[in-house]
């Protein structure tokens, strides 16, 4: 039995837009099945709940772009873009493949529109790094808000990707998980 829990919009007061279940990602094609569900390790789920609760009074909602990513998916992404600055080398494993990482953006609750973060999700460029001074002030402010919410909720951040957050000490505490861990394949056949 897996230690992963389903992350639904209703239960977690978030939005889901899993990038790898569509062609709207850096690969240009779906990696997950179109009906793929969102999953996180049971230890990470309360941190997501806390981050969503902190965002709500600010008129914001979290939009999850990726969470649990099977090791097979990590290999598929790496085969297209073997860049360790933006993708974990699957030989070492990704915290996504442990179920303890989320890729997230902020959405305005009133308009339903994502906030300007200076780059899109999965923009593999130095502009995606935290603490960029060459972005519009509004994008810098939005990144600072997201960073503050996630850190206050107990997440750690990855300095090269404004969208990526993971649990502290994840690599020493959690195993890598396969596409078969849920009993139903998540990836495209």
Automatic annotation (TrEMBL):
A GO term for molecular function: zinc ion binding
A Pfam short name: Peptidase_M15
Keyword line: Cell wall biogenesis/degradation, Dipeptidase, Hydrolase, Metal-binding, Metalloprotease, Protease, Zinc
Catalytic activity: D-alanyl-D-alanine + H2O = 2 D-alanine
Keyword Metal-binding in record: yes
Note describing how the cofactor binds: Binds 1 zinc ion per subunit.
EC number annotated for this UniProt entry: 3.4.13.22
BP GO terms, sorted: cell wall organization; proteolysis
Residues the UniProt record annotates as site (Transition state stabilizer): 69
Catalytic residue list: 161 (proton donor/acceptor)
Top-rank taxon, per record: Bacteria
Amino acids binding Zn(2+): 96, 103, 164
Role description: Catalyzes hydrolysis of the D-alanyl-D-alanine dipeptide.
Family named by the database record: Belongs to the peptidase M15D family.
The name this protein goes by in its record: D-alanyl-D-alanine dipeptidase
